[in-house]
Specification:
α2 runs parallel beside α8 (243-254) and α3 (76-86) crosses α4 (103-110). This protein has twelve helices and 16 strands. The protein starts with a strand and ends with a helix. The strands form five sheets. The chain has a seven-stranded mixed β-sheet, sandwiched between helices. A three-stranded antiparallel β-sheet has the order 13-14-16. Strands 1-2 form a two-stranded antiparallel sheet. With 374 residues, the chain is α/β, with parallel strands linked by helices. The protein has helices spanning 29-42, 50-63, 76-86, 103-110, 129-134, 155-165, 214-222, 243-254, 256-274, 299-313, 339-347, 359-373, and strands at 3-5, 13-15, 19-20, 70-73, 93-96, 114-117, 140-144, 168-172, 188-192, 205-209, 226-228, 231-232, 280-282, 292-296, 315-316, 348-351. The structure holds ligand T4K. Ligand T4K binds at residues 20-24, 75-77, 100-101, 103-104, 146, 172, 174-175, 192, 194-196, 205, 316, 320.
């Protein structure tokens, strides 16, 4: 921990080095080097290499699904795009949440589907099944809820909607790796393995799906839809995970319990520090503590704390997810339709959390937040 207390009347703690909202977990370099030796010996860098296949099998075992029920990609966004496409969403309407990263809806737009925005539940901050149900029409092909921050969506509510209306339920589970209780739900789920996530493969994305029949389609789509030396069956793209990514993923997967445990310790520390604090609410719903969000009473307080942390404390918290998706031009058709999401977006702040952030640093960050929010 590198901190220096400011003297005088300012009770704020300024960190010497910037504290970012997240840092990637980096395994011991020697372990990565050993894996590289294998890659060098194979002289195989991408296109369904041996480490990719090993990572695929290791993930199936970790998630408790069969190897036919998953597919790996070079990032989460392309995994979503190809997953939506393989599920037949092109040209249809898809009900989803505006309280998410842009990729959830960008991937829909890129295949020619129309996102229809429904409001979120104020407690979980995930899409509300009740709000979604009101927007179902004969043009609706799917519902895409997001397990935002690693908070569980109302999976039973969405399952009922899927069965009642015959629409697909596809979870954007980008934040939810490590929450294995959520794995059985939905027709498909996407996990992001970006380095800002608690588990990563440098970049990467994973789809798990119920219908084994779509696996080959996804394998083809991620490889230009080249099905064999003489067949190109669709307009696929290049979304293949390479061997160096698979190596990073394999090593990080061995550390997953450790990674989850440290996140939990950070969460417990924030929770303790913020308990009884009248100027903010620490949100405790995350099942893997992928993010540590706090909610302020109003926009002005959130902005004061966000700026104050940066300028006075050298702490770079982030306003995930502000501005709300519907304030961006491609999604302006949803503007004003989701008041709960708009309100939360204007008051939310996500605090630093990552492997290696010390609990003493967490305490200092929390103290700064409390002080700035007064
Ligand atoms: N669906 C949802 C719900 C998502 O949240 C995301 C991604 C996706 C889909 C798409 O999955 P991917 O295609 O990304 O696999 C970041 C991430 O780039 C993005 O993956 C993530 N969600 C989103 C919530 O956050 P930015 O624009 O905030 O990233 P950036 O570059 O500002 O980095 C955040 C912090 O991390 C900075 O303080 C710097 C630090 N950092 C970052 C990287 C990459 C490091 O210290 N080292 C690093 O290597 O989007």
């Amino acid at each position: 921990m590198v901190q220096c207390e400011l003297i005088g009347v300012n009770p704020m703690i300024r960190f010497e080095k910037p504290i970012l909202v997240t840092r990637p977990y980096l395994p011991p370099l020697d372990e990565f080097k050993r894996g590289c030796e294998e890659i060098w010996a194979n002289r195989w860098l991408t296109n369904n290499g041996p480490l990719l296949q090993r990572f695929h099998h290791a993930l199936a075992a970790y998630l408790g699904v069969e190897v036919e029920n998953l597919a790996l990609f070079n990032n989460g966004t392309l995994a979503l795009e190809l997953g939506y496409y393989a599920m037949g969403l092109a040209g249809g309407e898809v009900i989803t949440t505006p309280f998410t990263f842009v990729a959830t809806s960008h991937a829909l737009k890129r295949i020619g589907a129309t996102p229809v925005f429904a409001d979120i539940d104020p407690e979980t901050m995930c899409l509300s099944p009740k709000a979604a149900e009101k927007l179902i029409t004969p043009r609706t092909k799917a519902i895409v809820p997001v397990h935002v921050y690693g908070n569980a969506c109302d999976v039973n509510g969405f399952q009922r909607l899927g069965e009642k209306y015959g629409v697909k339920i596809i979870y954007d589970a980008a934040h939810a790796f490590g929450v294995n209780s959520l794995v059985p739900y939905g027709d498909m789920s996407m996990y992001s393995f970006h380095p800002t996530k608690l588990f990563h493969s440098c970049e990467g994305g994973l789809l798990i799906f119920k219908d084994k029949a779509i696996q080959q389609r996804l394998f083809d789509l991620r490889n230009f839809s080249i099905h064999s030396e003489t067949e190109c069956v669709d307009i696929g793209t290049n979304a293949k995970m390479n061997e160096l990514q698979a190596l990073m993923g394999l090593i990080c997967l061995e550390k997953i319990s450790e990674l989850l445990e440290w996140r939990n310790k950070i969460h417990e520390t924030y929770k303790l520090m913020f308990s009884g604090c009248p100027s903010l609410r620490y949100l405790e719903n995350s099942m893997n503590h992928a993010y540590c969000p706090i909610l302020f009473k109003d926009f002005a307080t959130r902005e004061r704390v966000y700026q104050g942390l940066k300028e006075q404390c050298n702490v770079f918290a982030r306003r995930y997810f502000y501005p709300l998706l519907t304030s961006f031009a491609p999604y302006s058709h949803g503007r004003g339709l989701c008041p709960i999401a708009e309100d939360i977006s204007s008051r939310i702040l996500t605090l630093p959390t990552y492997h290696g952030l010390t609990l003493m640093d967490v305490e200092s960050i929390a103290r700064n937040v409390i002080e700035l929010s007064k």
